[in-house]
């Protein structure tokens, strides 16, 4: 299709994930099941942290509750639209809806990066400076840090949506992706996107690289402190408090680096990689934190048993 410079687009068509027609019903049911479990699992974590007095007074679990809110938000922004692609008929997304989806995904996604960094710093203080931990990481400071993460994420999302949608889009309108993300949308722009691609690479690269470097630095210090613990049981308990966080960071950062921090390509693997931060990680986080965290498991038992 030729580009028509005189007519700007008012809607986009998301092609979704390439799939055989015979699997359409299965994929519809699978992602619907994943979405429902994601919402229920994260809601259960959020309620548990909120009502259990032993959890909501501790910064680590305040961060975990905020993570559940972010996971519910990312899943709600992306997965219902993905599920619609497995139904019959073409379902376009309005231009404004595409911009909103891109904004909220990058707003919540970058906030999640900052939150993972705060959680690593929290574990560093708890293990490396346990005597000073109540002073260094109190409820007031943790609330301020979370507010800063939300603010920084909002700024990042605003920059990305302004840069992306300041360009003219005059056709074609078919986005070869399952949601409105920067690389897929920029391919449809009727203008040079070199500046956008450079700024996107630098902006996202700075966020991902700085957060990951701080997390890595925290865990280097944590591992050194754990190895100095004399008893095997003490080392095991210290590692167990960090295992869940290391797992979710790995599952989140590796796909994000693959999608955004490499030369521009149009690989089918991009869509598969994007499923992890948008659908798989929000689904896995409640499972990882309930199966690997003894405090959360005990709090869930208290919640189920009641007073």
TrEMBL record:
Keywords: Cell membrane, G-protein coupled receptor, Membrane, Olfaction, Receptor, Sensory transduction, Transducer, Transmembrane, Transmembrane helix
Ranges of residues in domain G-protein coupled receptors family 1 profile: 41-289
One GO location term (cellular component): plasma membrane
A molecular function GO annotation: olfactory receptor activity
A Pfam family recorded for this sequence: 7tm_4
Transmembrane stretches, start-end: 26-49, 61-83, 103-121, 141-163, 204-227, 239-261, 273-291
Subcellular location, record wording: Cell membrane
Topology term for the membrane: Multi-pass membrane protein
PANTHER family: OLFACTORY RECEPTOR (PTHR26453)
Entry function: Putative odorant or sperm cell receptor.
Protein name according to UniProt: Olfactory receptor 10G3
Naturally occurring in which organism (per UniProt): Erinaceus europaeus
Gene name of the encoded protein: LOC103126184
């Amino acid at each position: 299709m030729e580009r028509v410079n005189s007519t700007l687009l008012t809607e986009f068509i998301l092609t979704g994930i390439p799939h055989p027609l015979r699997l359409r019903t299965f994929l519809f049911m699978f992602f619907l099941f994943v979405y429902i479990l994601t919402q229920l699992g994260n809601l259960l974590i959020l309620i548990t942290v909120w009502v259990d007095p032993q959890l909501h007074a501790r910064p680590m679990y305040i961060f975990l509750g905020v993570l559940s809110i972010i996971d519910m938000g990312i899943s709600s922004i992306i997965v219902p639209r993905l599920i619609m692609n497995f139904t019959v008929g073409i379902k376009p997304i309005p231009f404004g809806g595409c911009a909103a989806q891109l904004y909220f995904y990058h707003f919540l996604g970058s906030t999640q990066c900052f939150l993972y960094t705060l959680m690593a710093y929290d574990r560093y203080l708890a293990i490396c400076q346990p005597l000073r931990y109540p002073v260094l990481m109190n409820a007031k400071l943790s609330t301020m840090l979370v507010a800063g993460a939300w603010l920084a994420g909002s700024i990042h999302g605003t920059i990305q949506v302004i840069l992306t949608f300041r360009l003219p889009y005059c056709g074609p309108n078919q986005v070869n992706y399952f949601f409105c993300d920067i690389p897929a949308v920029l391919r449809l722009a009727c203008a040079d996107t070199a500046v956008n691609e450079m700024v996107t690479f630098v902006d996202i690269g700075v966020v991902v690289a700085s957060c990951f470097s701080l997390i890595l630095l925290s865990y280097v210090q944590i591992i050194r402190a754990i190895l100095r613990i004399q008893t095997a049981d003490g080392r095991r308990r210290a590692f167990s408090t960090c295992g869940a966080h290391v797992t979710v960071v790995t599952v989140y950062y590796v796909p994000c680096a693959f999608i955004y921090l490499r030369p521009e390509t149009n690989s089918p693997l991009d869509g598969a990689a994007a499923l992890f931060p948008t659908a798989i990680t929000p689904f896995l986080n409640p499972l990882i934190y309930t199966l690997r965290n003894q405090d959360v498991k005990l709090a869930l038992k208290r919640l189920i048993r009641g007073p």
